[in-house]
Amino acid sequence: MKRHAIALTLGIVLAQALGAAAQAAAVSAEEAHAIGIDAYLYFYSLVTMDLTRKQLTNQEARPGSIGGPMNRFANVPQFPSADMRAVVRPNFDTPYSSGWLDLTKEPMVVSVPDTNGRYYLLPMLNMWTDV
Q: Which of 34, 50, 84, 109 could form an SS bridge with 80, CB 3.0 to 4.6 Å?
């Protein structure tokens, strides 16, 4: 709820600022097009990541499922099937774990067990999908 209020407030402020700017100087079609492209590039990742987060965290943890509640990792012990679509183009020879961390109140410590020299990845992405 708090995020929606912040987003709504930000939207109102931006709309007012754009409205004032439009009254001060007319925006050409080319400028409006460029603004639209910039807005799309900035917000597309945020919107799609938030939709993915909502879909994957709005479920109970189940064995073999890549989704589950916030701040908990879901570990899938078997390789993904060919019809798995929770992530785009998963590797079919890689076991996956997934978790969404809520860092709005405090940081979190993520630790992994000793793998006895085995190779693994622990990528973390922000909402713009930057690793």
A: 84
